[in-house]
Amino acid sequence: MDFNVKSAHPEKQRADCIIVAVSEPRRLSRAADIINQASKGYLTSLLKRGELEGKFGRFLLLQNIPGITAGRILLVGQGKETMTESAFRDLVARVALYLNDIPVSDVLSFLTEVEVKDRDIGWKIQQSILALRASQYRFDDFKSSKSKKIFSLKQMTFHVAHKKEALLGEKACEQGIAIANGIKLTKDLANVPANVCNPSYLAKQAKDFAKQHGKDIVSCAILEEKEMKALGMGLLLSVTQGSTTPAKLITLEYRGAKKSVKPIVLVGKGITFDTGGNSIKVPPHMVGMKYDMCGAATVFGVMQAAIELELPLNLIGVIPSCENMPGANSTRPEDIVTSMSGLTVEILNTDAEGRLILADALTYSERFQPAAVIDIATLTGACQLALGPYASGLMSNNDELAKSLLQAGQQSGDRAWQLPLWDEYHEALKSEFADISNVPFSDIGARTVVAGCFLAKFTQKYPWAHLDVANTATNAGSKRGATGRPVTLLMQYLLDIL
Ligand code: BES
Ligand code: MN
Ligand code: ZN
Q1: pLDDT for res 145
Q2: Looking at residue 357, what is its pLDDT?
Q3: Catalytic one among 94, 290, 355, 415?
Q4: Which residues are named in the active-site annotation (predicted)?
Q5: What is the pLDDT of residue 363?
């Protein structure tokens, strides 16, 4: 789909469809009013007959409107005249679904004129692009009949009022498209089943990714188990030892700024399947565990978008990847292993594996002398209990970094919510026999926070934030599939710090 902006007269357009808003009660927007005048009161006559009250989410599609050159007018009920951010997002998602059901290819939207509290036109355009691209996402690589649904919608133009809006709008198109492309990559990787998407597959994707962008822009390095052993990555190795597919530690480096500029490091959990290991999951909890590499997929998506926008920064992705399998050689509860940092860990529950592979990857990340490290992980089921599907869990050892991420979440709509890392929670990880344990010996609850505390013990050398996306990286309820979160949040963060 193509996106662009132009300053347009609603009555004189040749588009297949023009979208204009009506708010409650029966109030025409500026563009709707112009169409009404050009059609000699056609819209007011419809409103008078009670055809559209302006109620949120109600649509009315008109054809062959007198005095109008466009083929169709889609009247969209926006509800209140000043919309909230979430109502606007909801509205453009509904509009996107509606457009995919009617035979239009070229659409002009005047929803850019709708007032959204505290948000400018760039924001409205970016939200619209993300909604449209999401509405056309399908994953059918594994369907035998490739009757891919062809969408008729090919071109979306957003109305801008003047030069300043045009500049904001063009920038929003460019950024929206790049972020949508990143999200698509994240979803595509995440949706691939674990019998195909194993650590070697991710490593191959990383190598191809680097090749595709060119050596002087992106470089890729893959560490094998032998090298992990030499580095002392006992935690990562303890997770992979029950699996027959080898673990990989993937590093992708994007150089967008001078070498002297300290990089942002993104560390993504890449468990390509999580059975729980010897602390095996019950069957209903195991379904969905192909998505335990969504953090890794997010790293790919963010790097893709950042590179497409040629962001002037240095960005490094670190992906520890392996399977968590039961087996004759897999880790037993109460085994004690030594991390790369030197801390010894008693593994009381082999299903708390994400924190183990991340801990070694976080220690490894010290070598990049990062400005900040952000890890992204489907880490705890409890995050869903705490926050439902709306906000990712955020924990950090740096208030400024946390604030920036929260702000980026609020701005982009891909929100996060901060949880504490207080000393009291750290206490829970004391072990009788090792330096720490990977889960509390006696449960205190707060599993999302305790997991964050575990990671915090390995991130003392740099500003660090942890995003638990167990609740946001995949769709909630009966809807399946990856969401592409938190690519948008992280892109907003990167754009904000430039
Ligand atoms: N990958 C899971 C977390 C998860 C659960 C992600 C549900 C998405 C949906 C993680 O490795 C795990 O198993 N966590 C345990 C931790 C527990 C053993 C302390 C959990 O959440 O139950
Ligand atoms: Mn697990
Ligand atoms: Zn897991």
Answers
A1: 82
A2: 99
A3: 355
A4: 281, 355
A5: 99
